[in-house]
Specification:
By secondary structure, the chain is an alpha+beta fold. It has one domain. It has two helices and nine strands. The strands form three sheets. Strands 3-9-8-7-6 form a five-stranded antiparallel β-sheet, sandwiched between helices. It has a two-stranded antiparallel ribbon with strand order 1-2.
Length: 155
Amino acid sequence: MIKRKADGTIEKFKARKVGRGFTQEEGVNYDETYTQIMRMESFKILLVIALYRNWAIRQWDVVAAYLQALLKHDIYITDINEDGETEYWKLHKALHGLKQTGHEWFEMLCNIMKAYRMQQCIGDEGTYVSTKEQIIVGTHVDNLLGIASTEVQLA
């Protein structure tokens, strides 16, 4: 794919390797596929809380989120090199197109949030709260919505 600048000149060439998840077998090279996201009601409540309390609102898109998540199973893919020869690769991190990619990313995100002492909400596991710092973060796949009291700096 060619990504172009506003004036039409080429900015960069983009390519994406994709795992062939349709060839995976449950229990062999994946177990979980479920990815928790913030409920729509929680999203609306976060905005109301932020507006009512005059809190800061910030949105993030995690760049290449899926490619950062570690895999629990051995997964091998094939590719054809420039000489037309087949190459076999063992994946160490998740890849778009694999069945468990979203789940592995969400588990990694949970661990990151726990490291920052954020707790999952009981009624919505896609939302995290830190009552000490007055921060609430909602997740939607690789997008995060954070609200915080004005004393806290959302980076």
